[in-house]
Specification:
This protein is an alpha/beta fold and 470 residues long. The chain is 44% helix and 14% strand. Strands 3-2-1-4-5-6 form a six-stranded parallel β-sheet, with helices on both faces. Strands 11-10-9-12-13-14 form a six-stranded parallel β-sheet, with helices on both faces. The chain has a two-stranded parallel ribbon with strand order 7-8. The relative contact order is 0.08. The model has no long low-confidence stretch (mean pLDDT 95). Bound molecules: nicotinamide-adenine-dinucleotide. Nicotinamide-adenine-dinucleotide (NAD) binds next to helix 5. The site of nicotinamide-adenine-dinucleotide (NAD) has 27 residues, from helix 5. Pathway: Nucleotide-sugar biosynthesis; UDP-alpha-D-glucuronate biosynthesis; UDP-alpha-D-glucuronate from UDP-alpha-D-glucose: step 1/1. It is an enzyme of class 1 (oxidoreductase). This is UDP-glucose 6-dehydrogenase.
Length: 470
């Protein structure tokens, strides 16, 4: 690598779940590069500059504290950061457009466009502009149009795609030791040179053989494809969980037997109430939308099934709860264990708990919700926007958020496990049984509890993908 490829100043537009951790790890691993993370939200930047970071990720605070104000800066001064940087990450949100019929909805690229326009208006020297956000295939073309339309003399732009594969809850570990880094760019001398420059940054701590370069469109599509494959595995095993419940097969045994095939592998084969989170559904909807636009309806329908199966699983689980409780939950107290979309996060975006709670509330249940990390206001806001009813007071009357699981279960007819928090495995279920209405039911939507032990206590237990005796 020639010395001239080295860069010393990077700016990242967007200080969210991706931009913040990515730049913090980069600053930690590249002490000679000055990283400036900018955001239009003054509140978010203030939090990044404080002792209470805006997001929780194991190990993140320590890294930020170590590098902040040395070679890691958080700022709202977007123009200065753009002007000074040689390389700019665009790491803004790309949410699903909130109109359409629910099948194949486009990603809203307005924030990406805003970022591109800011770069075009501000840049006075050449820049490598890197799509870090998850975008539709050929989004780089739109960014290039905006940049070139405003291009000043002596300023050149190279656009790269460098999607992020971190998972919430393990972001720092994923960034320090990724399976791969993907860099897509134009296959021209200039494009290849830009790829080499970004690759040089990652090579400061990542072995070169894990850095993969492709053309721009392959890279953009690979991110959507990776999330689609991961979600597809969950929907596949969940579809089989319904067959197991109807036949006496056990989905855990099936998953183990299937996963031991080295061609298949065992990861992401855990049956559950369904997947959630901000990315899987959004990215598959986007993939479906792209396929429909390309006049590939069969391909669109194929991927749409992954989402439909996830909806089916959430609804199927909720209906089973109602059926078991003598076909009515009206005025019954039901304890909900866990509201986050997965353990070790307070994130509730697209969490299956919303669907389960919505269905139970529509049937007249009274819910007592306990989650160790999710704030009560977040739960009320999620359930209110799930439009259980037009009356905003309804949710407040039918739902209580408890800060202790033992309070949540008092006089409850049933417990529903929606999130796989470790602490649910070590609760005193004898004590819990004693304080519940009888018969007492547990619906384990995450398959984390000891079902035999619970049955011995006297609980009626239902879980995903296994017919239990009582
Ligand atoms: P986020 O909502 O947490 O953060 C985005 C930030 O961008 C916000 O703070 C917002 O204020 C800021 N922003 C928007 N427009 C701006 C502008 N014009 N100028 C300055 N700041 C602006 O989003 P996120 O979770 O970090 O996701 C970012 C992208 O990365 C998305 O495309 C997402 O799909 C993708 N992604 C997310 C994850 C994840 O686990 N969250 C993982 C991989 C990829």
């Amino acid at each position: 690598m020639s010395e001239e490829l080295k860069i010393t100043k990077i700016c990242c537009i967007g200080a969210g779940y991706v931009g913040g951790p990515t730049c913090s790890v980069m600053a930690y691993k590249c002490p000679n590069i000055r990283m400036t993370v900018v955001d239009k939200s003054a509140e978010r930047i203030e939090a990044w500059n404080s002792d209470k970071l805006p997001i929780y990720e194991p190990g993140l605070f320590e890294i930020v504290k170590e590098r902040r104000n040395k070679n890691l800066f958080f700022s709202t001064d977007i123009p200065t950061a753009i002007r000074e940087a040689e390389l700019i990450f665009i790491s803004v949100n790309t949410p699903t457009k909130n109109f359409g019929n629910g099948r194949g909805r486009a990603a809203d690229l307005k924030y990406v466009e805003d970022a591109a326009r800011m770069i075009a208006e501000t840049a006075q020297s050449s820049k490598i502009v890197v799509e870090k956000s998850t975008v539709p295939v050929r989004a780089a073309e739109s960014i290039m149009h905006i940049l070139r339309a405003n291009q000043k003399a002596d300023v050149r732009y190279d656009i790269l795609s460098n999607p992020e594969f971190l998972a919430e809850g393990t972001a720092v570990a994923d960034l320090i030791n990724p399976d791969r880094v993907l860099i897509g760019g134009e296959q021209t001398d200039d494009g290849l040179r830009a790829i080499e420059t970004l690759s040089w940054v990652y090579e400061r701590w990542i072995p070169k053989e894990r850095i993969l370069s492709t053309n721009t469109w392959s890279s953009e599509l690979s991110k959507l494809a990776a999330n689609a494959f991961l979600a597809q595995r969950i929907s596949s095993i969940n579809s089989l969980s319904a067959v197991c419940e109807a036949t006496g097969a056990d989905v855990s045994e099936v998953a183990k037997a299937v996963g031991l095939d080295s061609r298949i592998g065992s990861k992401f084969l855990q049956a559950s109430v369904g997947f959630g989170g901000s990315c899987f559904q959004k990215d598959i909807l986007n993939l479906v939308y792209i396929c429909e636009g390309l006049n590939l309806p069969e391909v669109a329908a194929y991927w749409q099934q992954v989402i439909d199966m996830n909806e089916y699983q959430k609804t199927r689980f909720s209906q089973k709860i109602i059926e078991c409780l003598f076909n009515t939950v009206s005025d019954k107290r039901i304890a909900i264990f866990g509201f986050a979309f997965k353990k070790n996060t307070g994130d509730t975006r697209e969490t299956p708990a919303i669907t389960v709670c919505k269905i139970l509330l529509e049937e007249g249940a009274k819910l007592e919700i306990y989650d160790p990390k999710v704030e009560a206001e977040q739960i009320f806001s999620d359930l209110t926007s799930a439009s259980v009813t037009e009356n905003p007071e309804f949710v407040r009357q039918a739902v209580k958020v408890q800060s202790d699981p033992y309070t949540a279960v008092e006089r409850a007819h049933a417990i529903v496990v929606c999130t796989e928090w470790d602490e649910f495995q070590s609760l005193d279920y004898n004590k819990i049984y004693g304080s519940m209405m009888k018969p007492a039911y547990i619906f384990d939507g995450r398959k984390i509890l000891d079902h035999d032990a619970l049955q011995k206590i006297g609980f009626h237990v239902q879980t995903i993908g296994k017919k239990l005796n009582r």
